[in-house]
Amino acid sequence: MLTPPRTVIRRDAGLYALEQALQRRGFARVAGADEAGRGACAGPLVAAAVVLAPGRRGEIAGLADSKLLTPLARERVFAAVHAQALAYRVVVIGPEEIDRRGLHVCNLAAMRRALAGLEVSPDYVLTDGFGVDGLGVPGLAVWKGDRVSACVAAASVMAKVTRDRLMVELDGRFPGYGFAEHKGYATAEHQAALDRLGPCVDHRFSYANVAAVSGAAQLPPRARRPADPGSDDSVGSDDIGIREPMGRPVPARGTVGVALDEQLRQQALLGEDVVMEGGRR
Fold first, then answer.
1. Is the pTM of this model over 0.90?
2. Distance (Å, rounded) from C-alpha 11 to C-alpha 18?
3. Model confidence over 110-165: pLDDT tens digits?
4. Residues 70 and 202 occupy one common structural domain
5. Cβ contact 70:123 at 8 Å
6. Within a domain: residue 271?
């Protein structure tokens, strides 16, 4: 039996070349997935999956990697993807889940849920950087996929705009950190505010810089988040503080966690996520 010739796609062939090559091979509906917020020390992790229409119907004016677009351009592309995509899904995972399960596990789970939640089942999946298994369809992890694949770029815009909007809302709940500007990333301005104000409930306590100012640096990463003040869990350090909305400090009592490498030995199930947007065209 003869094997089909290998398809070679040049990186300068354009943003739609990879999807078009897959469609010529019979994969009509190609989904792309990407995330936003992986490197932030505050706020949620947001993942998105998008299936664009084949051919010229699926071309989005101004589409590019979200990091290369201005905020205004991202908003325009977001609206265009929302209107033109065959299907899209956006999943949000909060910082408490990131602290409990670990960032990489949450990253893969969020992309998996976004892809599995698409109302149009894809024939092939492209992901940015990390392969996602358990989808029941073939897929490929593409290095810098948001710069070489249209559907991955569209997913990056959907995730980035959704997360930015959430961080602007968070800025109103927790004034003083500058979330509306730096979106929770560890900029010099954010670190200065963190040193001055201490962490709020939307910070990621498993991160070293947050743990250092919370008084929990001596604990394992997944045991650093303070317990809910209304819970009965009193295990942990009494000197770990957390800031409530509008700056009211709450003495927290700690929580029970697991060692950082435990996730390498068993794949824990992630808690419920919040689907912010999803639809089919």
1. no
2. 9
3. 999 999 999 999 999 999 888 888 888 999 999 888 888 999 999 999 999 999 99
4. no
5. no
6. no
